[in-house]
């Protein structure tokens, strides 16, 4: 009985030591993987060229970055296209608001006085509403009418006198 017990005990001991060494082995592999990743990240960080882009407002900094992304960057996926669509809608509305404001400040008359109502509609846009396609569509007629008015066009021609994009 005593002999059997010793055998069993030895077997259990062998199984235990196997498990521990397997566990240690997997921990070492994981640690090596982490070290490799740290080294790879360090190399990437060293090779990254950082550019400080300075320039006055409206001088083309953002445009330059967008061009770099289009020329050298990855393709835009559907999600990014949707995101950019919202940004473009926002830019159109914000840009028109700036032009409406500038037209008034520069005392440029409307060609068609009824544009004042469309200007008020565009100005009423609540910036916190998500500008998806249906919301933007509600503004399209007013935006088109305003853009075709010589009052807004004259303000646009004089855009060097104010900042159009922020
Ligand atoms: N003709 C011409 N227009 C440009 C060029 N680069 C930018 N623009 C126009 O200039 C305007 C301002 O460009 P942005 O890239 O927004 O300028 P920014 O330096 O980021 O401006 P802030 O963010 O206000 O400091 C936009 O209407 C651009 O389309 C260029 O190389 N040539
Ligand atoms: Mg910019």
Question: How would you portray this structure in words?
Answer:
The structure is a single chain. The protein has 166 residues and is mostly helical. It has a domain at 77-161: GI Alpha 1, domain 2-like (Orthogonal Bundle), CATH 1.10.400.10. The protein is 71% helix and 0% strand. It has helices at residues 2-47, 61-72, 78-105, 115-123, 133-147, 150-157. The longest helix is centred in the N-terminal third of the chain and has 46 residues, at 2-47. It is elongated. The mean pLDDT is 88. The structure holds guanosine-5'-triphosphate (GTP) and magnesium ion. Magnesium ion binds at residues 61-62. Keywords: GTP-binding, Magnesium, Metal-binding, Nucleotide-binding, Transducer. One of its GO terms (molecular function) is G protein-coupled receptor binding. G proteins are composed of 3 units; alpha, beta and gamma. The alpha chain contains the guanine nucleotide binding site. It holds the Pfam family G-alpha. One of its GO terms (cellular component) is cytoplasm.
């Amino acid at each position: 009985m005593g002999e059997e017990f010793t055998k069993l005990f030895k077997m259990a001991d062998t199984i235990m030591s196997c498990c521990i060494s397997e566990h240690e082995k997997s921990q070492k592999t994981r640690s090596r993987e982490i070290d490799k990743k740290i080294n790879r990240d360090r190399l990437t960080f060293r090779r990254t060229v950082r550019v400080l882009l300075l320039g006055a407002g409206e001088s083309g900094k953002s445009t330059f970055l967008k061009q770099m992304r289009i020329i050298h960057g990855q393709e835009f996926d559907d999600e990014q296209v949707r995101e950019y669509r919202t940004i473009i809608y926002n830019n159109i509305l914000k840009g028109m608001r700036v032009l409406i404001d500038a037209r008034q400040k520069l005392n440029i008359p409307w060609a068609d006085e009824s544009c004042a109502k469309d200007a008020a509609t565009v100005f009423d846009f609540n910036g916190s509403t998500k500008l998806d396609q249906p919301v933007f569509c509600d503004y399209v007629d007013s935006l088109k009418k305003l853009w075709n008015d010589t009052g807004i066009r004259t303000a646009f021609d004089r855009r060097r006198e104010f900042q159009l994009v922020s």
